[in-house]
Amino acid sequence: MAWPEHLWIVRHGQSAGNVAADAAEAAGLARISLDCRDCDVPLSDLGREQAAAVARWFAGLPDAERPDVVLASPFVRARQTAATIAEAAGAAVTTDERLREREFGILDRLTRAGVEEFHPDQAAALTMLGKFYHRPPGGESWTDVILRLRGLMDSVSLHHRGRRVLIVAHQVVVLCLRYVLEGMDEAAILGIDRAGDVANCSVTEYAFPDGQPHLVRYNFVAPVEAATAVTAEPDKAVAAG
Questions:
Q1: Among the listed residues 145, 143, 160, the one whose alpha carbon sits nearest the alpha carbon of residue 67
Q2: Distance CA 174, CA 170 (A)
Q3: Nearest to 69 by CA among 160, 1, 3, 151
Q4: Taking the mean position of all CA atoms in its chain, how far away is CA 33?
Q5: What's the CA dihedral at 134, 138, 144, 147 to 10 degrees?
Q6: Distance (Å, rounded) from C-alpha 167 to C-alpha 185?
Q7: Overall pTM surpassing 0.85 (yes/no)
Q8: In angstroms, rounded to a whole number, what is the distance separating the alpha carbons of residues 6 and 209?
Q9: CA distances (Å), origin 26, targets 12, 21, 23, 111, 112
Q10: CA 129, 134, 140: angle at the middle one, nearest 5?
Q11: Helices (H), the chain
């Protein structure tokens, strides 16, 4: 495969969905209160600050080292984050539906308590199969996300070889791209997931010195930490990730 010259993967800034999910979990509620579709959930005020902070970090790179291709999930929170970074880096944003958030199907907008209350069979199936293979009715497993990301990387190879590519998407996309790029197995990627959440506006970076992807940094939050608060949300069954 022909790779980009450089690749960054950034999770979107904190979203209104992240805030609502935290509030629902803290209150022990079964459902997350949101008045719009998941794809329309915007950044929170803090999320916009985080996006501006990481945008300044990218803008501070030498001209020849900044991303010149920016690909984003079509979800509003990711597009808002990508637009902020792209403007600072002097690039344009292209959306790609394969970068969208994992689809949760009938578990959408439910907290963990809500899944157990309304769909105990799915809670049991998730416990038995694990998140890597469990596919809720109408939703996706991690392996489903991985399949669409393999297609995405084929497109990057075809259209953006030798370019400096930035991807802005969601927590599960960051993790599943690591799985694809580094040739991991289920145990390896779930171990990384258990070790800690992907922070909002954190940077994961790859270089290709010998034509193969080499991880430069993962979950890098220094640009955000220097300017505002760092936040991270777990991969809940329902939360906007």
A1: 160
A2: 6
A3: 160
A4: 21
A5: 170
A6: 22
A7: yes
A8: 9
A9: 23, 8, 5, 10, 11
A10: 170
A11: 16-27, 45-59, 76-89, 112-118, 120-129, 142-159, 171-182, 186-195, 222-225
Residue with tokens 């578990």: 107
Which of 165, 196, 194 is closest to 181 using CA atoms?
A: 165
The DSSP bridge pattern shows strands 164-169 and 6-11 to be: parallel
Domain boundaries, the chain: 6-225
Gap between the Cα atoms of 51 and 43, Å rounded: 9
Residue 101 CB partners (closer than 8 Å, separation 6+): 38, 39, 73, 75, 169, 170, 172, 173, 240, 241
Mind giving me the DSSP string for 129-153?
H-TTT---TTB--HHHHHHHHHHHH
Task: Report the residue count for the chain.
Answer: 241
What topology is assigned to 6-225 in CATH?
Answer: Rossmann fold (3.40.50)
Instruction: Measure the CA–CA gap between 13 and 84, rounded to whole angstroms.
Output: 11
Instruction: List the one residue out of 134, 149, 222 whose CA is nearest residue 182.
Output: 149
Name residue, tokens 């992907």.
Answer: 198
What is residue 215's three-state secondary structure?
A: strand
Q: Express each pLDDT in 137-181 by its tens digit.
A: 999 999 999 999 999 999 999 999 999 999 999 999 999 999 999
Tens of pLDDT, residues 68-82: 999 999 999 999 999
